[in-house]
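#dry-run=false #mode=assembly
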Amino acid sequence: MDCMPFALDLETLPGAVPVRRAVVSSDKLRSVCTAVHESGGLLHALWGCDERDRKGGYLLRVALQDAAGLLLLELPMNAAQPCFPTLADIFPAAERMQRAVYDLLGLRAQEGDTRPWLRHASWPADCFPLRRDYDDRGIRAAQNESYRFVRVTGDGVHEIAVGPVHAGTIEPGHFRFSVVGEKVLRLEERLGYTHKGIEKRFETQPLMQGQRLAARVSGDSAVAFSWAYCMALEGLCGITPPPRALWLRALCLERERIANHLGDLGALGNDAGFAVGLAQFSRLKEDLLRANQRAFGTRYLMDALAPGGIRCNLDEANRRDLLATVPPLVAEISTLHEIYDDHAGLQDRFTGTGRVEPALARKLGLIGLAGRASGQSWDIRCDHAYAPYDKLAVRMQGRLQGDVAARVAVRFEETLESLRLCQMLLENLPGGELQLSLPPPAKRLGIGWIEGWRGPVLIALEPGEDGLIRRCHPHDPSWQNWPVIEHAVMGNIVADFPLINKSFNLSYSGQDL
Amino acid sequence: MLRTLKQITRIGIISEPVPLTAAERGERDALQQKIRRIYGRALCIRHVDAGSCNGCELEIHALNNPYYNLEGLGIKFVASPRHADLLLVTGPVSRHMQDALRRTYEATPEPKWVIALGDCGCNGGLFGCSYASAGAVADVIPVDVTVPGCPPTPGAILSGILAVLDKPRP
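#status=ok
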C-alpha cells in the first residue's frame, strides 16, 4: 500500500522481515486499515500493551499485512478510559481479537460484540490479568457465568452442543450447531478452554530462554514459534545467525511441516472412512520422527532452536542418512496420492465439502494453508523470503476451489515441495558456526514472522529489566481461520463437520493462549 | 482398489514387539491375558486434554500407528469417559478446564485409574500455576501414574499404561 496519502511517520524495524511502524490516531487507524483492505491487504494480528509505567496509558497494536510486508500501527490510549474504534467492520477477523484484548487488558472496542472471549469464569470481569499491576496471587474463586450463544429459531431447528471434551484425541473447545434434520444452519464456536496465561507467563521468563515457552504456544508449530521468537530477539540485538544455523532451522521447519501434513493426510482419509490412509500415512510420519530422533536426538524439535543459532548439529553421517530418506518418501507419498485421487468414495466426501469461495476467504481474511486452498496467495517464504529461503525459491502451492479436496491437494503439494526443499538444504548445507553470542538487545519492539505449516506465526517481543521479557505476544493464524470454519460448515451435514474441521486442523492452544 | 491392496500387501505388517520391563518380559499374549484377567476385556482409555499445548496429543496419536499398534495389545481409546477404565490426562490443567476434568473423572465408572501425561500434567511444566493455570493434574483429580517428558515418547506412554496394570485394583 502507498502510505503517502496518510502522511504516516513510518519507521522501519530492524530484523529479517520487512516491518514498518507508525503511531496513529483513532481516525487514522481506521482510514489506514480501510486503505490496506481495499488494496488487497489483510489484518494479521491485534493486541494491547500496558504502558502506564512508562509513557502513560495503554497501546493498541495492529499488524497489517500487505505486499510490502507488515505494517504495524500503534494507537495510544489514555489510562482512564482506554477504548479504540472497532476494526471488525473492515476486517471481520478483528472481532475475537478485540474481545480478547478486553478480557486480558480492559481495552474496549467502541462497537461490536462485548461478550467475553478468552475469559470464561476463572477470573472476575473487572480483573485484567495482563495489566502490569495485576496481582496473580489473589486469585478469587471462579463464578459461573452463562454465555449467550446466538439462538436460531424456526420450524424443526434444534441445537447440538459438543465439547469441550470431545470424543477423539483432540484439543478442547465447544461447538454449538443449529441444525434442521442433518443440515447445519449455523455453527457457533466457543473457545478459550486451554487458556493458560501464556502472555503473562512470558513476563516471568528470561529473555534468552523465551523461545522455550514460544515453542509451546502450539506444540505442533514448535519450530515456527521458536524461530519467530529468535528472529525477534536477534533483530533487537542486531545480529544474523550463522548460515549453517539458518539452514538447519529451515530444515527443522520443513520437517515440522512434513510431519504435520503427513498426520493430517492420514487423518483426513480416516475421517472420510478410508482407514488404510491413516495406517499408511501414520507409518510415514513415524518414519520421519524416528529419523529426527537419529539425527537430532529428539522426535519433536521443541527445543532445537536457541537465540543466535541452533542447539542441534547434524554430523556428516546423519546428513547423509536424512538425505537418503527423501527419495523413498517422495515415492511413497506419490503412490498414496494416486490412491487418494483414484478412490471414488474419498473424492466424493472431499469434493465440494466445506467450501470457502475465494471472495469469502478474502473478506474474512483466511490465511496460511487453508487460505492458499481458497485462492489467497500468501506465503512469507515466497513473499518476503528471509534467509535461507532467499536461496531456495519456494514454489507457492494453491487452489481456487476452497473445499476439503483443495486443502488435501495443497497438503500433498506442499509436502512434496518441502521434501524438495529438504533435499536442497541437505545437499548444500553450509559449514561453520552453529550459534553466535548475543550483544545486549535494544529496549524496543522486535518482530519475528515465520511461515509455519498452518500459516504465518508472529512474535512481538519487548525486553524488560533484569534480563526478563517485558511483553511477548505470540500470534497463531488459527485466530483468523477459526471464524471461517463457522462459514465453511454452513449447509453441510453435521457428519461432515469432523472432516471439514480436520481439513483446516486449527490450533486451540495457539489461539487460547 | 487394486492399487490399495497392492500397497497394503507391499508394506505388510510392521507392528513391533512391546518394550516390556524386565519383570513383564513375556510375549504380547501374556500382556493380553493380564489385561483380560484384570478387566475381563480390552483396557479402555479416554484421553482428556486439560490445557495441553497439543504436543502430547501428537505422541498419543503415534501410539495408534501401525508400529506401536496399541489396539493389537487389547488397549483402545474410547469416545466417552463412561466407557473408560483409564483417563489419560494432558496439559497443565487450565482453570477453564478444571470443571470439565472433574466432571469427566466423575463420569468414569469405578474402578478407574488416571495417568498424568507430560511434564505439564506432572507438575505444571513451563506454564506453572497462575491466574489461568491450576498446574498439575494431581492438584485437581487423583493420579495413579505420572509420565514425564515434553512430549513423552510413545514408548514412555506405553510404559506408563503398563505400570497402571501393575497397580492393585482399588
